[in-house]
Design brief:
Length: about 200
């Protein structure tokens, strides 16, 4: 119309007019969003979309150590030297438990299992006997057990020698001991140092 000024429409106004026109023409408009809301929706989807990552388990087990048999070696002496049981070396090399070795023979020496100390039972009352069991010590290692009382007192038991398979155990009777947490320390003369605890109930 002459004499009528028409104000230019903004982008938002043009979109609204388009939507009204579509609706008037019988087109159902489900949703409309500007570029900013699209970016927001995209970011929201990227944050909430479930992700699944499967990684193959990794192991850090070292390969066995190779050892060449020397004159005078026995399965027992080699086991003691490496701190493992003679049975584990025999099994790793299909020796059938025989202590007959040939000079120059190559043996695969398995690694010793990690050392651990367990106390059984973990809780008890006065008069109970608690058993301290070490596994993974060096064959023939001398292990000394200490019991640290809740008040800081220390009872030291007599030394025990680990068997060829690295196991050693001791028993402790709680007669008249106070209630609380007791620490058990196992110390070996060849580097073993372990700690565990038990609780004496009142």
């Amino acid at each position: 119309m002459i004499g009528t000024s028409v104000k230019p429409r903004t982008g938002s106004e043009r979109r609204q007019a388009l939507l009204r026109g579509l609706a008037a023409g019988g087109v159902i408009v489900l949703a409309a969003c500007n570029s900013a809301s699209k970016d927001t929706a995209k970011a929201s989807r990227s944050r909430t979309a479930p992700t699944s990552t499967t990684a193959a388990p990794t192991t850090t087990t070292s390969p066995p150590v190779s050892y060449q048999v020397k004159r005078g070696d026995t399965l027992t002496s080699i086991a003691r030297f490496f701190g493992v049981s003679a049975a584990s070396i025999a099994a790793a090399n299909q020796l059938g438990g025989a202590d007959r070795l040939a000079e120059g023979q190559i043996l695969q020496i398995p690694h010793a299992p990690p050392a651990s100390l367990t106390v059984t039972p973990p809780d008890g009352i006065a008069g109970n006997v608690f058993t301290f069991a070490v596994t993974g010590a060096k064959a023939g290692e001398t292990i000394t057990f200490e019991v640290v009382t809740p008040g800081g007192g220390i009872f030291t038991g007599s030394p025990h020698t680990a068997a060829q398979d690295g196991t050693v155990s001791a028993s402790y009777r709680t007669d008249g001991d106070e209630a609380g947490k007791y620490d058990v320390v196992a110390t070996g003369d060849r580097g073993t140092s372990l700690r565990a605890s038990y609780r004496l109930l009142g």
